[in-house]
Amino acid sequence: MGSGVTELMRILIVSDIHGSLGKVERLARIKRELTVVAGDISRCGSIEEARAVLGELVR
């Protein structure tokens, strides 16, 4: 029952990336406070590919 001020949080929610580093690089430029990755990070399940994708999102 406060001051009437509304605070907004920018949330980026992504899924079905399937190893597409080009798309992830564009998504990584979006200004946000929180990133949620819902799954399907890599094409074939390799940990190296998943690390590369997630590494772009945490920059």
- Our Rg estimate from Cα atoms comes to 15 Å
Provide the helix percentage: 25-40%
Q: Treating each run of at least 4 consecutive H or I residues as one helix, how many helices?
A: 2
Give the helices and strands as they follow along the chain: EHEH
Overall outline: elongated
Q: Number of domains in the coordinates?
A: 1
Structural class: alpha+beta
**Order of strands side by side in the largest beta sheet?**
1-2
Strand elements, count: 2
Q: Which stretches of 5+ consecutive residues score pLDDT under 50?
A: none
Quote the distance from N terminus to C terminus.
Answer: 37 Å
Beta-strand content bin: 5-15%
Question: Oligomerization state of this entry?
Answer: single chain
Q: What is the mean predicted local confidence, pLDDT?
A: 89
Largest sheet data: 2 strands, parallel
Domain Calcineurin-like phosphoesterase: 9-50
Protein name: Calcineurin-like phosphoesterase domain-containing protein
GO molecular function, one term: hydrolase activity
Organism: Pyrodictium delaneyi
Structure description:
Pfam families: Metallophos. GO terms for molecular function: hydrolase activity. Residues 9-50 form the Calcineurin-like phosphoesterase domain. This is Calcineurin-like phosphoesterase domain-containing protein. With 59 residues, this protein is α+β, with helices and mostly antiparallel strands. It has one domain. The chain has helices spanning 21-28, 47-57; strands at residues 11-14, 34-37. Strand 1, helix 1 (21-28) and strand 2 (34-37) form a beta-alpha-beta unit. It is elongated. The mean pLDDT is 89.
